[in-house]
Each structure stands twice: as structure tokens, then as C-alpha cells.
Amino acid sequence: MTSESPPSTPPAEIGTEPDFWRFEDTGAPCEWAEEYRPGGYYPVNLGDTFCDGKYRVIRKLGYGSYSTVWLAVRSGTPRFVALKILIAKAKCPDLEIEIAAQLYNAAPDDNGSRHITTLLDHFVHQGPNGRHQCLVLELMGADAATLVEQLPENKPKMYGKVERYPKWLAKKILLHTLRGLTFLHRNGIVHGDLQPGNLLLSMADLNYMEENAFAQDVTETAVPLQRIDGKVDRWAPRHLYPAQPLHENIRLDAKLMVKLSEFGSAFRTSQPPTKAVTPIALRAPEIILKQPIGPGIDIWCFGCLMFEFLTGRTLFAVGVYGNDQKDRDDADDDHLIQFIDIIRPLPDSVMAAWSRAHNWYDDEGQRLQPYSDEEPFIHGSLQDMFARNKLPEIYEVEENVLVALMGSILEYDPKQRPGAEQLLMHPWFSKTD
């Protein structure tokens, strides 16, 4: 039975016990409804307008921990844009906006700018959960992490089947990523969060098409959001909407363009942060060891992504399975051990910076706890792992070239890693097949 009294304002922090939750479980593949609270998501309903009616939302493209992203229509060109609405408690993206302006001004003189998504507009929108920074970006298709699932060669989905890109497409994604990094680094900017989910693929021109070709069908996709107590919630939308990226409009041909996106973690080389937000399995040694960071963290990520795109598997299998310091330390140790197993032994300087190295290795670099038959996963060398998992179109000569190239990128000393511009000159990237 619905109570007549209005609901009280939910606290900024979500209770850990279900007794403190407001909404019935929807089971929908959407953002968590409980995050609609002061400091959290802005409650968007399809058809909502923003910036004095300048932008009208017609489709949900995606969501993350700090934002939701929508397809919006506007008057002018381009007609369709991506509207990214940050949670209210997100840090003000002043640096992200400053960097976008800097890159925009540098763009006319550098072809590498074509591989960076463009920030078209930004504004603040007031809502029941606070003030939300809104970024208007050029519209792109799906990201490289999800598009692979849509490729015909990866269907039907089967248990144990590795989903991966064909070689020509993997190479193009890597080449365009490298061009984007070259543009960033040339302008003194580090991306800081290079990962497949932040590599977006271009689409055919949509501006001549009618909006009903893209508008999300509310009757088929909207998931009603109901409070457990039956009251009307003013901090959440009436419905949740599953994300519908624009997979079907991506051009998988010679005109395909890949662009780096998500510059919320970017920084200037002259002003590096004390902490990076790189995905755990893509962290460079200097991130794990809390040492100064710079463009080298992007290059390390790129080396890991080379392996991933050319095999369909991640290079390092690392995860944090708890929230306390010991769990984080265990993940760091596991990651450093995998470096040794897969790439090469750590130099003395890195071993000295690893405060818990003595728990695992003696003074001669020999492991104190040898692998046992019961150990669930034993890592092979980079050469062995690549040979076992590489794309079938990669033959022995090319395999050796790629392993040597990845090995040169995955240098423990960031000063010894090749720069993005130097990598572009490598024959594997500079010569077309």
C-alpha cells in the first residue's frame, strides 16, 4: 500500500545492507538505481532537454561509475551529438575542459588530432541530486571493448570461445591509437586511462538521417523503476534504459576511424598527479610502485593492448578481491610476479623499490615459493603466450617481429620505452599489408 507521506531525502552514501535500499530489483543491464541520490546520477528520461532546450535526449548510449551518456539532437551541425552527464559529486572537469581546448587549438596543424574525440560544448545542469557537469562530444560508435562481440566471426557466442578482431581490424585500431597518442604526447598531454573501452570507432555520416531511425523505443526498452515502499521518488527517473550503442552504423572498411576518448584522467606532463586511474591489469611498474608517472604509462598500456588485440586475451591476469590494504598489496605482488614470469626478471632498482620482494625472492632473484602442481595458473613467457593465442593470420616471421616489438615496449624503465612517434616508424605500423 502506498504511503501518503513523501519519502525522505536519501543519504549521500548507499547503505551496505539491502534493508537500506529504496528500489525493487529490476534485473536490467543498467546503472544501479540506488546511485540516484544526492551526489549521484542525474535522473534522465527520454525526451528531456538540456541547456535551455538546445539538446534533446533520444537514446541512451552507455553509462559508467561517474556518468551516463546519451544520444542527443540539436539544431545546427553536427545534428547528433553525445551528451555525457557526470554524477553530481564528480570532480569539476576543469582540467579536462582546458586540455580539450588546448588540443582543439593544436588540431589544425596536426593530422593526429583526427584520432581524438572533440569536445563541442560544456555546461552545468541543476537537478534534484545536485549540479551536474555536462560535456557535449562528437558522436562516435561503439568502443573497441564491445564491438568485438558484434562481429560476425564471433557469433554465435559459445562458452570458451575467444572473441577477437581479425588482424586487419586489430592493426587499424592499434595504428590509430598510436597516432592519437603521438598527438597527445607531442602536445604535452598524457591520456592516463588507455583501455579498449576508451577507443571509439567512427560511423557513417548520420546528419542526413531522420532521428526516428535512432530514437530508443520506450515501449520495448524502458524498465519501470519502483520504490519498495510504493512512494514516488524525486531523485530517480521513472524508468531505467538499457544502453544501446550505435553498433549498426560503424563502418568496418578502409574509411574506419578510431579515436581516443575519455580524458577525465588526462594530465599535463608538467603537472603529473600523484595517482593514476589506469585499469589494474594495464598498470605500468611505476604506477604499482607509486613512482613518478608520465607518458610512459600510456606506452606501457599500448604494449598490453597490442597483445590483447592480437590474441583476444589479456596479457596480465590481475584482480583485487577485497577492499583492505592487504588485498591491494597482494594484487600488486601478483602483478609484479607476472612481470617476471612473462617479460623478464626485474632489475635491481625495481626490486629495491618493491618493499615486499623479500617475501617472494631471495637475494639472487630466485623464487622462494616455487610453483607447485596445484598452482591454478602458471604464466608462460611472452613468446609462449603469444604463440599459443595469436591470430591465425599471424605466421612465424611476423610473430617474432611482434614479440620483439612488444618486449621493447614493455620496458620496466619508462625512459627506455620507445615513444609513440618512434613506434609509428616501426615497419609493422608504417608498412601496409
From TrEMBL:
Keywords: ATP-binding, Kinase, Nucleotide-binding, Serine/threonine-protein kinase, Transferase
Residues reported to bind ATP: K89
Record-linked Pfam families: Pkinase
Domain Protein kinase: start-end pairs: 55-429
GO cellular component: cytoplasm; nucleus
Superkingdom to which the source organism belongs: Eukaryota
This protein's record includes keyword Nucleotide-binding: yes
Designated name of the protein: non-specific serine/threonine protein kinase
Organism: Paraphoma chrysanthemicola
